[in-house]
C-alpha cells in the first residue's frame, strides 16, 4: 500500500521506523552471497512449534508407502524409514515412491489449481518466488537452517527464487548419496515440475552438505547431472567395507545412486 498523508497519522516517524525494520529483515536473510554463508559455521537450528507435527506427518506418509516403520523415535526413525524406501526396488521405483509421498502431503485440488492458475503468472516467476519462500519457512525441520537467495536465470536476469541450505540435516543424517539423490533431489525436482508447474534444480554439495535450490530453472538430463556421478560419502558406514573388498572404481560409487 502507498502511504497517504492524513491528519489521523501526523507522525512520519512511526512509518519510517516500520519500513526500516522490514528492509532489515529481508537484507539479512536473502542478500548475503552464498560464498560468505558457506564460510561461516552453520547456525544451530532451533526447533519450532509445528516441527513435530510436520515430522510426524511426513514420516506417516513414508510408512504408508513402505509398509514398514522404525522402532526409533523422532528424526532418527525418519531416516531409517527413508533408507527402507530404497530397499527391494530399483532407483526409478524409489523415485516414483518418493514423488507419491510428496503428492500425498497436499490436497490434489490444491496442486492442480496451483499448476493451472499460479504457475503461468509472469512466465512462472511469481510461482517460483512463492515456493522458494514457503520452502525456506516450512522445511527447516527437515533440512536445517536455510534462507531465500538470488539465482541467475537462463535469460541473464536474476530472481529471488533460490533457497540455500547451509548444511542439510537429511543428507548428513542419512550418510548416503543414494538416499539424497533418489528420495530427495530427483523426486523433488519431478514433483515441483510435473505437479506444481515450477521447474526446479537442486544442487547438493556432498563435501560440505550444503544444498542450493533453484526454482524456475530446469535441471539437466540425468545422464549429464554431476550430482549423480558422486562417489560414496566418507561418512557412509558401508563405504569403507566395499572399498576393502573391491578395489575397482565402481566400488567407490554409491550402489543406491
From TrEMBL:
Listed InterPro entries: D27-like, D27-like_C
Pfam families with a match to the protein in the record: D27-like_C
Residues covered by the Beta-carotene isomerase D27-like C-terminal domain: 141-222
PANTHER family: BETA-CAROTENE ISOMERASE D27 (PTHR33591:SF2)
Protein's UniProt name: Beta-carotene isomerase D27-like C-terminal domain-containing protein
Amino acid at each position: 500500500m502507498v502511504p497517504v498523508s492524513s491528519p489521523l497519522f501526523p507522525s512520519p516517524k512511526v512509518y519510517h521506523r516500520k519500513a526500516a525494520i522490514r528492509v532489515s529483515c529481508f537484507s539479512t536473510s536473502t542478500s548475503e552471497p552464498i560464498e560468505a554463508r558457506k564460510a561461516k559455521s552453520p547456525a544451530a537450528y532451533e526447533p519450532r512449534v509445528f516441527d513435530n507435527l510436520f515430522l510426524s506427518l511426513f514420516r506417516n506418509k513414508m510408512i504408508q508407502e513402505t509398509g514398514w516403520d522404525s522402532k526409533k523415535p523422532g528424526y532418527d526413525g525418519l531416516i531409517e524409514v527413508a533408507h527402507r524406501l530404497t530397499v527391494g526396488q530399483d532407483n526409478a521405483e524409489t523415485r516414483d515412491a518418493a514423488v507419491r509421498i510428496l503428492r500425498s502431503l497436499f490436497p490434489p485440488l490444491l496442486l492442480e489449481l496451483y499448476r493451472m492458475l499460479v504457475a503461468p503468472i509472469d512466465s512462472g516467476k511469481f510461482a517460483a518466488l512463492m515456493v522458494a519462500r514457503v520452502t525456506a519457512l516450512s522445511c527447516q525441520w527437515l533440512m536445517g537452517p536455510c534462507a531465500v537467495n538470488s539465482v541467475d536465470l537462463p535469460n541473464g536476469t536474476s530472481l529471488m527464487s533460490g533457497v540455500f541450505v547451509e548444511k542439510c540435516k537429511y543428507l548428513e543424517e542419512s550418510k548416503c548419496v543414494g538416499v539424497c539423490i533418489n528420495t530427495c533431489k530427483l523426486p523433488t525436482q519431478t514433483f515441483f515440475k510435473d505437479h506444481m508447474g515450477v521447474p526446479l534444480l537442486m544442487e547438493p554439495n556432498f563435501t560440505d552438505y550444503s544444498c542450493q535450490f533453484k526454482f524456475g530453472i530446469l535441471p539437466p538430463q540425468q545422464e549429464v547431472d554431476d550430482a549423480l556421478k558422486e562417489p560414496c560419502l566418507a561418512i557412509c558406514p558401508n563405504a569403507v567395507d566395499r572399498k576393502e573388498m573391491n578395489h575397482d572404481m565402481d566400488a567407490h560409487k554409491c550402489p543406491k545412486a
